[in-house]
């Protein structure tokens, strides 16, 4: 019986997952091409990885809303493998690397069976950050030249960066029209990537930025083909190269180097990065899952390994869990693994149906996507974040970064671990603390009076974090947990960061996670591992320090006019707002500029949606109305094209009887149809019909009113406040 | 139960506190106390010892001293056997500047080889400190019955009002590994079931033991055996930890510490090992 219901629920969710899979495939296609090109492999290999990954992991995986395919992190490793193994011959090197990919897949399957999927937990987080930034710089350095239309730039990462100014001069002075046009397409594409998130138009945003680049460059080709007298200005060598019969010409791995040291080195590097990248992504995506499920990491690693083996045999790259595409999936309401599957299906369709069109994409356009990705991985913002945690974290970060860039990835991460450990020794001025206790069990957990109590002894750092993690994972997130560090002499940043993740997980699922016993510790500016620094500012600061901006002053004066109360920052952290459906997939960073009377509160909120290249930080003005009676959960929107798509995707529009006009103009949805119908009295319907349109959401706590997804001007604030007062009266 | 207590006399700065503790315990248990000094019998030493005995708050005691030369471990063990001693009291060493205690090499050897129960004191005190909370293991072991009996007898004698019986359950007994929501639910249910089973077992053992006036609590802990109970005793600031004597201790057990070795490496509180 239960199984049948589950199946029914699955079928019900199918349309929205197909839709999410479609949108994801739009971003996966250009990324697949681009990542493969950047890895020095044939462009189709990236798409093969995405297709195989999408199908295998969707069937056998252990996570829910993740998308799998070729990953950013592997670009640098695979490129290095192809270059060294091929010794100049890229095609042969690619075949050797495929063999390395197959073997790394087998190792990942074994790791999954040994429950060692948590390999990534053994690495200090600042070192991982440094490594990722180095990968970003590596991608950036190589691709920026391709973006300028120059495919032949060679050298180490440092040399490539040094050549950038020359690359720009060459592009400006070039007399080769083909290169000039390719460069212009590349730069325009980069601009699209950068400014895409600034345009909050929902029709524009339906197509992800990378797909816009593809659409525009294919469009440009057709313009020259059909309307313009001159020929397509970009030479074929600067366009993407796909095999003639895409789905039959598979490359086959060459295992003949399998016993050589270079090969083994490549296998280790690929496996290491693939598992770390997947693990980080799975963790990050779990935080976005609106249904708050916990992924089975080891099962996922097994599935990823198997997918990698198959992909390698078909001539595809590694399959890893990817964060940007997964976050797009979540934003498009993908709810189970079938979305990943459909993303693969759509990719197959694209390749089969549009192969001719896809051949028109200039390499420089794809390079622009990667330049942006590389920049995001190594963005100065990340460095600032690391520095905020502590100076020594910056040292770890920079040492790992520089070693990785100048030597290799494995050396880089090993040096990162070593530096972290040395810094821990220096901070504690003791080596015995670590040597004596490293193999001792140091964590005690027991349940008492319905609460889980965890006590940690001696030291807790990346070296023995798995022991703590094993205990914490056994606590259901809807329970109360107390973590006591009072018997622990030293806690490092990696542990603190992970604890913060647990705390968030517990908060999401309604539990309580409290860390105690750190009060007497040297924290703050002197001690590095103070998590307190990481907690975003959510409460009232010393008001006098910062002067109010003009907008803040205006809001204050509106407050005076209306008799409302203005506050720059909330006194206590806001807890009601995150419960609204709108924020299920969006993370609130900060709430400020509160304007409130007894029941209505207007506020500015800063939140982020998506991750990595799909990440968008949005600041918007909203209003919360506190309603005394019980409000059913619903959302109310203006009927538009999107809602027709939702209709198609299986969302139901609730029609209010006797108000055909309202039902036509507004899109109302929610679970409890009868209660919603009851809530929407004639008076309320009339009110909505005759007033300005806002996006409105209800839940038991009250109503959330959203105008545009941006900060409101003074006039808009006034009308929003007025709307709120009148709505409150009607309700 | 405990009729004869043996204490080693080393003329260290701790002697006074150790001696007073031993005399007090002898008084409370109604036991005879004997002291053993491994080394020469000199007039100075005798005088010092006599002085301390006269200072003792416990006036009504029978204290016998043995003076014997030789290897400390052998001498003490021999006398303990000859005199049919029930309890051996040993002092622990405090790590420099840290609030951590461990058992010195001689005391460790004695603990391993002694045929009687051993009491390891971390902070012997010249003044009496009331014992308020005793933690005792409730392992599934044939010795546990005896250990529980001793623990409750001791707590009656010391006037201790609270005894917690810790059931250490090995993680492997769970048979469920947590990897996602479904397995987490399963493991939580399995834990509840094991806990009920353990409580039943311990309650069965308690049937024949006099627990009047004592608050008895059972606490099940999933974790490494021998380690968890020590950590628990420390967290709960217990005054005495009562443990089963280990069944066997070979060289391998010292390399891969388990059970009581964890406790010996870092004493959480006073520990009584029952044999």
UniProtKB/TrEMBL annotation, chain A:
Coiled coil: none
Protein name: SulP family inorganic anion transporter
An individual GO BP term: transmembrane transport
Keyword Transcription among UniProt keywords: no
Superkingdom per UniProt: Bacteria
InterPro entries linked to this entry: SLC26A/SulP_dom (IPR011547), SLC26A/SulP_fam (IPR001902), STAS_dom_sf (IPR036513)
Residue intervals passing through the bilayer: 18-38, 44-62, 69-88, 94-114, 179-196, 203-224, 263-282, 303-324, 344-373, 394-427
Keywords linked to the UniProt accession: Membrane, Transmembrane, Transmembrane helix
Subcellular location: Membrane
Recorded topology in the membrane: Multi-pass membrane protein
Pfam families in alphabetical order: Sulfate_transp
Organism of origin: Tenacibaculum pelagium
């Amino acid at each position: 019986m239960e199984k049948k219901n589950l199946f029914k629920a699955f079928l019900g969710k199918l349309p929205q997952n197909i839709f999410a899979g479609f949108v994801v495939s739009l971003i996966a296609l250009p990324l697949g091409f681009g990542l493969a090109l950047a890895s020095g492999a044939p462009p189709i290999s990236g798409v093969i990885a995405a297709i195989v990954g999408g199908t295998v992991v969707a069937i056998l995986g252990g996570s829910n809303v993740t998308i799998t395919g070729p990953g950013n992190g592997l670009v640098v490793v695979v490129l290095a493998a192809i270059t060294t193994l091929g010794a100049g011959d890229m095609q042969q090197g690619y075949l050797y690397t495929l063999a390395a990919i197959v073997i790394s897949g087998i190792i990942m399957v074994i790791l999954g069976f040994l429950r060692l999927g948590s390999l990534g937990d053994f690495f200090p987080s600042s070192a991982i950050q440094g490594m990722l930034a180095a990968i970003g710089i590596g991608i950036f350095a190589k691709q920026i030249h391709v973006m300028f239309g120059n495919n032949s730039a060679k050298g180490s990462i440092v040399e490539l960066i040094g050549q950038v100014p020359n690359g720009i001069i060459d592009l400006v002075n070039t007399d080769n029209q083909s290169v000039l046009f390719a460069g212009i397409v590349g730069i325009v594409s980069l601009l699209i990537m950068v400014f895409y998130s600034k345009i909050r138009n929902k029709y524009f945003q339906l197509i992800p930025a990378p797909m816009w680049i593809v659409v525009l460059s294919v469009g440009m080709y057709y313009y020259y083909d059909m309307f313009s007298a001159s020929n397509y200005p970009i030479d074929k060598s600067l366009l993407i190269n796909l095999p003639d019969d895409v789905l039959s010409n598979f490359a086959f791995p060459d295992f003949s180097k399998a016993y050589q040291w270079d090969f083994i080195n490549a296998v280790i590097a690929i496996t290491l990065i693939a598992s770390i990248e997947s693990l980080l992504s799975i963790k990050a995506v779990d935080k976005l899952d609106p249904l708050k499920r916990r992924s089975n990491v080891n099962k996922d690693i097994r599935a990823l390994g198997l997918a990698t083996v198959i992909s390698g045999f078909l001539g595809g790259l590694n399959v890893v869990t990817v964060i940007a595409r997964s976050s797009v999936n979540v934003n498009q309401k993908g709810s189970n693994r079938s979305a990943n599957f459909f993303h693969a299906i759509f990719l197959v369709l694209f390749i089969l149906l549009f192969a001719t069109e896809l051949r028109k994409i200039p390499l420089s356009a794809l390079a622009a996507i990667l330049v942006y990705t590389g920049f995001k991985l190594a963005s100065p913002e990340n460095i600032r974040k690391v520095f905020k945690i502590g100076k020594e974290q910056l040292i770890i970060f920079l040492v790992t970064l520089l070693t990785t860039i100048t030597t290799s990835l494995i050396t880089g991460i090993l040096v990162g671990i070593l530096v972290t450990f040395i810094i821990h020794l220096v901070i504690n001025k003791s080596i015995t603390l670590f040597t004596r206790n490293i193999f001792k069990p140091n964590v005690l957990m027991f349940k008492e009076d319905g609460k889980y109590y965890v006590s940690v002894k001696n030291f807790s750092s990346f070296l023995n974090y798995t022991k703590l993690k094993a205990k914490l994972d056994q606590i259901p997130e809807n329970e109360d947990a107390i973590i006591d560090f009072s018997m622990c002499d030293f806690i490092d940043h990696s542990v603190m960061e992970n604890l913060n993740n647990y705390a968030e997980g517990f908060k999401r699922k309604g539990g309580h996670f409290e860390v105690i016993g750190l009060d007497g510790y040297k924290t703050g500016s002197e001690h590095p591992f103070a998590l307190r620094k990481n907690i975003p500012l959510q409460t009232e600061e010393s008001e006098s320090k910062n002067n109010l901006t003009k907008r803040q002053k205006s809001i204050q004066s509106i407050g005076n006019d209306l008799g409302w109360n203005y506050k720059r920052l909330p006194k206590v952290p806001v807890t009601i707002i995150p419960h609204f459906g709108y924020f299920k997939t969006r993370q609130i960073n900060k709430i400020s500029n509160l304007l409130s009377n007894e029941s209505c509160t207007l506020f500015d909120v800063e939140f982020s949606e998506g991750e990595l290249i799909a990440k968008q930080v949005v600041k918007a003005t909203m209003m919360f109305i506190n309603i005394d009676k019980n409000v059913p959960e619903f959302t109310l929107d203006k009927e538009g094209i999107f809602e027709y798509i939702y209709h198609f995707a299986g969302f139901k529009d609730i029609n209010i009887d006797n108000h055909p006009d309202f039902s036509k103009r507004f899109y109302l949805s929610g679970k409890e149809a009868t209660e919603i119908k009851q809530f929407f009295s004639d008076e309320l319907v009339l009110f909505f019909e005759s007033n300005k349109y806002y996006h409105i959401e209800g839940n038991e706590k009250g109503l959330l009113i959203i105008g545009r997804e941006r900060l409101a001007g003074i006039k808009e604030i006034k009308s929003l406040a007025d709307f709120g007062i009148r709505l409150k009266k009607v309700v | 139960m405990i009729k004869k207590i043996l204490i080693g006399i080393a003329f260290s700065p701790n002697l006074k506190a150790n001696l007073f503790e031993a005399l007090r315990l002898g008084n409370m248990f109604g036991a005879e106390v004997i002291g053993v000094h491994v080394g020469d019998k000199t007039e100075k030493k005798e005088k010092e010892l006599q002085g301390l005995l006269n200072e003792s708050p416990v006036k009504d005691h029978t204290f016998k001293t043995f003076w014997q030369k030789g290897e400390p471990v052998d001498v003490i063990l021999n006398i303990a056997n000859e005199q049919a001693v029930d309890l051996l009291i040993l002092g622990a060493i405090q790590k420099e500047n840290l609030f951590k205690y461990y058992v010195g090499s001689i005391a460790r050897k004695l603990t391993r080889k002694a045929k009687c129960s051993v009491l390891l004191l971390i902070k012997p005190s010249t003044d009496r400190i009331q014992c308020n909370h005793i933690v005792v293991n409730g392992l599934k072991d044939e010795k546990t019955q005896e250990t529980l009996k001793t623990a409750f007898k001791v707590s009656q004698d010391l006037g201790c009002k609270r005894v917690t019986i810790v059931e250490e359950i090995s993680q492997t007994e769970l048979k469920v590994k947590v990897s996602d929501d479904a397995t987490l639910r399963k493991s939580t249910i399995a834990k509840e079931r094991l806990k009920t089973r353990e409580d039943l077992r311990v309650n069965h053992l308690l049937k024949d033991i006099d627990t009047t006036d004592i608050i008895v609590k059972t606490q099940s802990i999933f974790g490494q055996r021998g380690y968890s109970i020590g950590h628990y005793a420390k967290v709960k600031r217990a005054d005495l930890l009562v443990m089963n004597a280990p069944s066997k201790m070979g060289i391998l057990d010292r390399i891969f510490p388990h059970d009581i070795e964890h406790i010996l490496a870092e004493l959480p509180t006073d520990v009584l090992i029952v044999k």
